[in-house]
Amino acid sequence: MENYLKYLLAIAFFSFCFAGLSEAAVKKTNPHKNLRQHKNELASISKQIYSLESNLGKGNKRYLKTLDQRKKLEELIVKLDNEIKSDQKLNEEKKVETRKRLKQVLVQGFGKVSTPAQVLSRKLVLNLLKKELAELNRIHKKRAKLIKSMEISKAKYEDLRRVESDLLSLMNEMEESKREKSLRYVKLKEEKEKLRKKLKFNKAKSLAKRKKTKLISERFSTPLTDFIDMEYAKKGVTYKFNSRQAVRTSRAGKIIHTGSLSTYGNVVMVDHGNEVKSIYLGQFLPSVKKGQSVNAGESLGKTFDVAKNEGKLYFEVRKKNKAQNTILLLDKNTTKNNNRRRM
């Protein structure tokens, strides 16, 4: 019985200890860590609640068993008490009768000459007296045993009452612990849900942002492979060349405009999707038409034969019709072997 109580007390003690540790464990700033810690603590609290419920079930069964044992002992004690009282009463009655019979024997035999009939009568009375004394002795021993059984039963009763009180106290503590853990569980679940929604929102926001900037953040190749110099500012890049060569698309897309600007030369505009466009303007002859789809590196036309003079080709990337810092978007591998300078 004591071992069983120690076991329950140990379980309750460790359960109470876990409660303090788990609450402090989630006070972090990283939302991902917080979510993991919330999940871990929820799992831990769930196990603790399950353990408490199991122990409460065992404790309740033990408590009911103790009540049943105590009730039976109460009934036994009442029965023993009644038997002791009954035997006491019988003992007193037998004592009175025995005294009377002893007195009768003494009176009959004192100072008289006994006839054979009187002697026989006296012997019969003496035999009855012996039987009554034996019965008195038996009642006395029985009463002594009943009193001893009564004392043992009362001691057991007190032990059971203490066990009952300890079990009740322990179950109340476990019930309180379970209540606190259940409240903590609900709170953590709400916090976890908020964190999950926040992370989901941040992820969606980040994904949308990455999607929005995916195309513009990808590198563009240079439209000319052989140029003698390049100049760049905060917008486009101007390539200088002195040989006839293909002007190539920096990335796959669709031709949305071909034409010419009187003082600058011919122009081709390519739509790369997601509101990203590239513009090719200068001394070259386009060979593509509006609406035509082109792959990355595909020829848009050829530069003019400028002989000893230098030709120019302006290249620009635009996002939402706003010029970007194109030099930062160029693939370094396509420009590293050529001279370049900032305008």
Task: Describe what this molecule looks like in 3D.
The chain has helices at 2-24, 31-109, 116-217, and strands spanning 229-232, 237-241, 246-248, 253-261, 265-273, 276-282, 284-286, 293-294, 299-303, 311-319, 322-323, 341-342. It is an alpha+beta fold. The chain folds into 2 domains: 31-210, Helix Hairpins; 229-329, Glucose Permease (Domain IIA), CATH 2.70.70.10. The strands form 2 sheets. Strands 1, 2, 4, 5, 6, 8, 10, 11 and 12 form a 9-stranded mixed sheet that branches. Strands 3-9-7 form a 3-stranded antiparallel sheet, with no helix packed on it. The longest helix has 102 residues, at 116-217. The protein is rod-shaped and about 180 Å long. The two termini are 93 Å apart. Mean pLDDT is 77; it is low at 13-28.
Shape: rod-shaped
Could you tell me the CATH topology label of the largest domain.
Helix Hairpins
Q: Give the CATH architecture of the largest domain.
A: Orthogonal Bundle
Tally of discrete structural domains: 2
Strand runs, count:
12
Average pLDDT, rounded to a whole number, is 77
| Strand fraction | 15-25%
Assembly status: single chain
Give the count of helical stretches. 3
SS class: alpha+beta
Biggest β-sheet description: 9 strands, mixed
Radius of gyration: 55 Å
What string, H for helix and E for strand, traces the elements in order? HHHEEEEEEEEEEEE
CATH class of the largest domain: Mainly Alpha
- Assign a percent range to the helix content: 55-70%
